[in-house]
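Technical appendix A lists one of the benchmark inputs used to test multi-chain prediction within the project. The record comprises two sequence entries:
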Amino acid sequence: MSSTEQLDAPRPPIDLPAVWSTLQAIEGNIQRVIRGKDRVVRLALTPLLAEGHLLVEDVPGVGKTLLAKALARSIDCSVSRVQFTPDLLPSDVTGVTVYAPDTGSFAFRPGPVFANIVLGDEINRAGPKTQSALLEAMEERTVTIDGTTHQLARPFMVIATQNPIELEGTYPLPEAQRDRFLMRVAIGYPHADDELEIVRTHGAQDQLEELTPVCDTASVVHAIRTIREVRVSEPIERYLIAVCRATREHHDVELGASPRASLALIRSVRVTAAIAGRDHVVPDDVKLLAPHVLPHRLILRPNAELAGITAVDVITDVLSGMPVPTE
Amino acid sequence: MRRDGLLTLLLALVLLAIVPAYDRVFTDPSWRAGALTAAAIGLLVAAIARRARLPSVAALVLAGAGLIAALPWLLGVGDGWGAGAGEQLEVLRLTLADGWLALAEQTAPSEPLAGLRLLTIVAWWAVALLSHEVVVRGGHIAAGLVNLTILWAVPLAIPAAAPDTLLLVVPFLLTCGLLLLAAVNTREDTPQAIPLPASGLALLGIAIAAGTASPWLLPAHGSDAWLNLGSTATARGYQPIVDISNRLNAPEEREVLRVRSSQRTYLRLAGLDTFDGATWRLGPPGAQSFRPDPARLFPADQPLPPEEPAASTQVIEVDVEVLELENIYVPLPYQPVEVLGPIRDEMVWSTQGGFLATWDEAEEVGQTVGIRQGSAYRVLAERPTPSFADLDAVGFPPEVVTAHTQLPRDYPELGALAEEVYAAAGATSVIERALALQGWFIGPDGGFTYDLDVPALRGEDALTTFVLEDRVGYCEYFATAMAVMLRQTGIPSRVAVGFLPGERVTSAAPEAGQPLDEYLVTTGDAHAWVEVLFPGYGWVTFEPTPRSDDAHLLPRADDLAPLENEAERAAREAEEAEEEPSEAEGPASDVDAPDPLDLPEETDQGLDGEESAAAADAEGTGWSSLLLVVLALVVAAGWALPTAVRRRRRQVSSRDPRSAVLAAQRRLYAGARRVGLDRRDHETAREVLARWEREGWIDRGHGPVAEVVQAAAFDGELDPLRATAAVATLDELTTQLTGRVHRRAVVLVPLRRASAAITRAWGVARQQWRQR
């Protein structure tokens, strides 16, 4: 999809306008509920279309769950929600086989993971066993129970939220598992004017109830397929890989971005390009997404962490030192 | 006394060193003899006057008398003073007037016209005399150098094709230095008003400033001035007809426009409404410098009102890409309805003359250039396509006739000749007469010859001489003559200037994504033609120039708005004739074919006849003709292949919009680097443009350009029209960027770079030290 000799070959037409209007519709719908967070909304759409999962990490009360719900409601698809607690069992997530006395046989009762969008609230409150059950489903897109493998729906996206402040009684996600999330976003506090708007409207009625789906799963699947066609030229590929490799050699980093991270980044930038209505990826896309796709995969050196350096700082540092291709 | 002689000699040397500078003004060196002789008269007379202890005034009077006495001989005009002083004076007066006119009209370098030479001669004489008086008599060496430096610096405003900076600067500086040295060393008791070393620089500064500020003393420089030792800008005249001969006579033919159009079409720059006795000009008669009537100017970003309402028209669409042309007037098919493309925002459409141009209301000429390399635009036009019967029936209101038949004087001979032509053709109506006159110019009856190598059409009698005697000239001559003859016989007409349709390089191939024919217009296609006003049908084109290369389109009674040139018409007519059974065509085409084979056969027989038998002869003939055919094919291939390759290469290099955009981007970054505004390594095209906008180096609102650039760079879909526009914008940005940085800052760029490198190295070293 990328090399220069393909320049002269006739290109397959990309059905971008249709995709673009789908994306605009979803984005506009979510923005009706989430005020003043256009960038976050746009980022939240990325994993859906790149077939990844989203980790929303922020303090309580900034609208993590609202964002997830709004996204889920904007698409005409099945949504389920799991509130993670310390006593939640893996089967509460994946489903169980139960004995039906009337038929005298065992029947499978699918758990909440059998939905297009799974909202995992406070994922760090569940025990490691339950967490890993969900994470396995995220990676494999299948669930195996009692020797039977069940295929999950398409599109399938997990939006997990976690609260970085309360550490008591939580089981933080191991680094290796955080890697399964395509992106991590923080929502952040709203602007004063937006907060005023939120106080006024949310007090009056339930905004979520008013949201109606603006597209169906088929058009999302079509969008996902189309976005794979977005061109990433060779200079961009090289630039993107150079950014990922640079995290591995950074002096503040213990463990850098894996090749899976490079793959995740390349999938995400295609989506950003498509959302911007482009049929090709530009360096700006990489610069925009790297601080969201890469940081949660890095493990910093203890002294850097002590010095208050965050993974986002590292990525910013890497980007500011990386020559950008211009042609 | 020895000192005086030495200084006079050195002054003469300085004047000689100025000669290369003036070679830029004229196309050939025939000006030199006159100017140098005049300077010698000035110097010698002044020196003799000083020797004879006569006052300065006497030197001036004597030198003036000497110059006037020598002028007819120096210029080669008139019959000399002996034949009649009054007559000679009148000739000189006319030459001077011609000279002033030429200053405004000729583009430099110009032919050494008598008028221009007269002005040069007077300037050299004056400077020589003045310098002598100031330097030798007054002892103010530096002040004397001011005149000389002005004389030297003025022509620097003219861009030279191949600037010979060494020859231009070194001899002049050397001789000036010698003059200063000699003056210091031989100084006697003459008091120096100002201490020499300090005053020298200051005076040189004044001299160069004055010299560069006064290029209005040069042909066609209007009021703008710039010091130019290189060859970037092109001198422009405001009157569009002036540069036709320059374009046609350009030493090498260059491609100026690439046109995509469904039909062949003339590209018109402007219609010239006024004949002033020497040339056709824009605007109404009387005004020396044309200012368009504001009431008849319309912004070009809206549909354009017609210059003249035309009843019978055909819509055409033309895409023009400018390859190499700078002009305030935009070449357009006539008459345009709408212009698309970025240029439309800065243009005005004038229904007086029917031109689209940038027209500054301010006095500054040449501040904005209408179209330039890389400009691209699309024009929708309504081509007048009246029929003969339509025009035959047109009535001419008296006010139309009065408005468009004015002439500066009566041309009775031309009028009489025109009536003769009409009578011979039996032409009575206006359209018949116009066609008859056109036929007379291009046909055998007139006996006219097309030739570029003729002196310019200047002077009172040049036109009548051309029509009645010489009958040799190029388009400007024919168009001027026909239009004047039409006006003299009461037919409203004018001269239009522009370009011929050019050569068709690519034919339309809709299935290959090219719905339009592509034409290349070169400098050789610069053209002037005649337009006749038929009320209700607009200005109709006539073509009096007998060009033999079929580049033009010839209106005929059965086809007044032709689309095919003469060769194509002939081919079509031949084809049509062939379709009807015809005896004459058959053998004619047979004669052609065997001809190349006949020739080798004969030579072959000549060679073989003596040595071999007749039996072998036939076989040998067969073989050798085959060999010759193969040889001819190889030669043809050898000739055609490089041409094809060259054409292909040119198409690849200039056609591919992607590489054009990337090249423009490279130019932008290189320009920025030159003035110290480097793109930082980690900045994308978007970011660097945004930063430059923030910092005020470029105007705001260039986001779309970054988009196009990145699409070009990273495999995006690229619309050719947007790409062309982006190239223009990028080049515009380069100009803005480099123009807005202060000269001083540019000079300091290497210093800043060096200090930044040192700081960086120091930072790296410190970091390594810490880590250790």
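The interface with chain B takes residues 2, 6-7, 11, 231, 233, 235-236, 278-284, 287, 319-327 of chain A (CB under 8 Å). The radius of gyration of chain A is 21 Å. Comparable benchmark entries are summarised in Table A2.
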